[in-house]
Amino acid sequence: MSQPLWTPTAARRESTNLWAFAEQVGVSLGAGSYDDLHRWSIQESGEFWRAVWNFAEGIGDLGNVDFEKGAGSSSRFFPDASINLAENYLKRSDDEIAISYRGENVVERDLSFGELRGAVGRVQRALQSEGVQSGDRVATLLPNGPEAVIVFLAAASIGAIYSSTSPDFGSAGVLDRFGQITPKILVATDCYFYSGVRHDITNKVVEVANGLPSLQRLVMVGYGDRELDISLVPNSVGFDEWTSGSLNVEPVFVRSSFDHPIYVLYSSGTTGKPKCIVHRAGGVLLKHWSEQLLHCDLRAGDRLMYFTTTGWMMWNWLVAGLACDVSLVLYDGSPFHPGPSRLFDIADELGPRLFGVSAKYIEATMKEGLRPRDTHTLASVETVTSTGSPLAPEGFDWVYQNLKSDVHLASFSGGTDICGCFVIGDPTGPVHRGEIQVPALGMDVAVFDDLGNRLSEGKQGELVCCNAFPSMPLEFWDDPEGIKYHDAYFARFPGVWHHGDFAEWSSDGGMIISGRSDATLNPGGVRIGTAEIYRQVDLIDEVLESIVIGQQIESDTRVVLFVRLREGLDLDDELTQRIRAQIRLGASPRHVPAVVAQVPSIPRTRSGKLVELAVRDAVHGRLVTNVEAIDDPEALNYFRDHPALA
Questions:
Q1: How many domains does the chain have?
Q2: What is the 3-state secondary structure (H, E, C) of 208-231?
Q3: Closest Cα to residue 149, out of 322, 307, 281, 356?
Q4: Do residues 77 and 258 make contact, with C-beta atoms less than 8 angstroms apart?
Q5: Contact at 8 Å (CB) between 386 and 411?
Q6: Rounded CA gap, 180 and 478, in Å?
Q7: CB-based burial of residue 383 (10 Å sphere; 0-12 exposed, 13-18 middle, 19+ buried)?
Q8: pLDDT by residue (tens digit) across 558-583?
Q9: Which residues make Cβ contacts (< 8 Å) with residue 169, sequence separation at least 6?
Q10: Residue 606 included in any domain
Q11: Which of 52, 107, 136, 451 has fewest C-beta within 10 Å?
């Protein structure tokens, strides 16, 4: 076992929500055993999720039946429930701040809980005046600001289905998503800011609206305090005008079933048209409560800050903090504008208890040489969370050495598919370098070999979940027989959710994720995870970022590593050999790439994930579909016919 980087004091452990919850359900954490609580949560699954509802003081009626077991995705939780998600998000109506919004250095805006509730009521009336009913779709193309939250909750209050994309998506990417779900209402911005540059998207909005024959109303929102020129977008109405008929309107909440569809999220779409993943209201409500209240230890009155866009599932996770009676800190734009410490400046200003970012962001701050503990107090921050991709061990070191030493670093891993986590943090347990602490409560997480056998610690295999859980998607859009759904998650191991991550349990009881299993490398028939290579390359100061693929050469696969270097540097023999030596030393000889090549840019999805499969297709001369899901699709051209691969 390794020495932990952080261990909570006894006083801190015993003051957590997780400790109180365990006592409430009659399971002792006195010996420091999270395992006992987790075992109970999967053995008594229905009882556990009802206990989460009770702990969160849920509003509504769960009914008398906890769980009806079915095959695969057909299991149902609380089949007799009657609830409304927005009613649980809008419990408060006081004058305390509900949302603090910062858009780079362009806009600052705060809304109280009372103002938020009133705004939701006004938009609810506007939606109803357009004939929007339960099951209709309402879509937004908005920055991470208050209007996106307001429209989402207004739609949810009447049972409409919400969906969002961020304004940096191209028109084809937006239509690939919204075109499938045929929304009645689209609420869009006229522009967005990134790195101090204003990006006008009015032409894109017009193109999107024209491509949605289902659209009955296009509503435009000006960015910040800028005056909106509605004439630039024909057949549209301004947001203020649209909602001006009512000043302070109390929203009315229409209760529906536990499985009522609440929002549609999208797969990354880098290997085809994005899948439209329909989530159920009760499922995400309970899942987010379990993660935020128990695993992240949020309490009423706290502030929750997560750097995300409206096109990533972490936006949905962030907004769920309202159901925990916490205030949201919304940031839109570049996290490094107007300076590299922008997010830490906001943390000092607004005082979040939870400070959430992506692993990519932590890697970038490391490369920038930032040391916030010397420049910021970060006095309020007790939990730092990281997700989006595996956080390298060096990322753990950076947090404790350069950010804050007394903080709970909770690395997450889950996905858009479940709008939550399979493995997550434990505020009552130690944090070990490079490891995600525990399987999430209620989730029977395992690592399988190719034959479906559970693997013990130290053996890599497929990440699976062996039991049903509430936030399993309700369905895929336009998949009436559930065939696409079944093939996506249950075809590999019948009756068991197969997530597609390559993982292993550690000797400390945590989990190490080695990347997507469909992107694993097989040189000489030996299966290795890409994350193991990235961890070593990140130690090379000259390398800003990298991407690794397997290139098919006759009957074998060779490992090819592409690197983006600091400006002005060229990849020479000395640096190439140093990269290879570091990988050999830190991983193993079989991880050493056969080819190391330099590229000026490396593409990612718009949520920051490396697009290994798209790069692999480009290298092999195959068509890369749905490039709109990629932040810089032109970068794929750097990999096609790269001279180093000749």
A1: 1
A2: HHHCCCCCCEEEEECCCCCCCCHH
A3: 322
A4: yes
A5: yes
A6: 8
A7: buried
A8: 999 999 999 999 999 999 999 999 99
A9: 141, 177, 311, 606, 628
A10: yes
A11: 451
